[in-house]
Amino acid sequence: MTAAPTLLTNIRVPGCAEVQRLWLDAAGIVQSIEPMSQTFDRLPPPQLRMIDLQGDWLSLGGVDLQINGALGLAFPDVQANDRDRLVAICRLLWEQGVDAFTPTLVTSSIAQLRQAIEAIADFMAQPLQPRHAKVLGLHLEGPCLAESKRGAHPQEYLQPLTVEVLSEICGDRLAQIRIVTLAPELDPTGEAIAWLRQQGVIVSLGHTQATAEQAQAAFEQGATMVTHAFNAMPPLHHRQPGLLGAALTTDTVAAGVIADGQHIDPIMLKLLLRAGEGDRRLFLVSDALAPLGLPDGRYPWDERQITVTDGTCRLDDGTLAGTTLQLLAGVQNLVRWQICTPETAIALATLAPLRALGVDWSDPRLLYLSRPVCQLLRWHQAETGELTWQRLCENDELPTPASI
């Protein structure tokens, strides 16, 4: 088929009230996006093709800010010779609708963390292969966590929260560290949080016993995120609101949530979404472990073993360790459980993580400009209510850039 400009009509875009139309050039690159009600300000180019998306949603790809590994490789175990395995993971995530992610390093020895940071930072410096998810930077989930809320994190590798410890772990790779999860009560002075913010690192509170007062102090010092809300923190209590109560009443804070039905009961998810104003201050994460992309079964996890049953990962003592949940499966779960609209659910996995990273999407249409068609997802809700998605480039009628 000869390449030609394309006009997509009758599309819904998360974050936009009106039905939109989108212009692609002959190479399949987004040129503009505008309301269907807007008068044409140009003559249609010759050989223009028009495709009616019939009210389906069009979104960016998913962004996963908490993913611990895939295809049998845990990110803390990454070594310099694991490039091919990282490439395979990036390809898998792209096939699962994820365009970008922050490999998450759980608590390990400082030597092991440094090795993984070096290897992944070197991988980030290499050109991104076509149709592969992009590494946005590293997420250090630990080791400066509260012992009583460590969950599946090994106790022997927990560290005090000091600038010296953080500096030793990060070395000269601070520019590649995007997020650090920590327990703020371990540093009452706030020196560590202030130092991380000075380095441009996003601070997320998690695996913590912090009171509401301690959490609020951390937010005032620059923390802007909460790691897997409700998990590894005090429960939301009417007399002791704790970290979650402070987070939900602070406009500058966004919380990650896992929508697998195991980490948070759907009723509490609905409560979170209402309190967190939907996709404004919440975002979806997978919290997927190394068995992501593999069948259920028993797998090694550091020096221990985890058992994966129906996508839920547990240690031998029953401790919940994570999931093998695909990020976009969480979107589908939210709609299936009737917790929110498809538009909100889609935004929670695509736009909301970008906002948590500091990206302005007051007009989300601007984020579509100059993107190749391969980076767009088409979502359709059947009469049964089931929500499905596909890469827009899987439509044979559309031009697809060969290099994307």
From TrEMBL:
Keywords: Carbohydrate metabolism, Hydrolase, Metal-binding. InterPro entries: Amidohydro-rel, GlcNAc_6-P_deAcase, Metal_Hydrolase. Binds 1 divalent metal cation per subunit. Its cofactor is a divalent metal cation. GO terms for biological process: N-acetylglucosamine catabolic process. CDD domains: NagA. Its EC number is 3.5.1.25. Residues 89-360 form the Amidohydrolase-related domain. Zn(2+) binds at E141, H207, H228. The active site is at D287 (proton donor/acceptor). It is an enzyme of class 3 (hydrolase). Belongs to the metallo-dependent hydrolases superfamily. NagA family. This is N-acetylglucosamine-6-phosphate deacetylase. It comes from Synechococcus elongatus PCC 11801. The lineage of its organism: Bacteria, Bacillati, Cyanobacteriota, Cyanophyceae, Synechococcales.
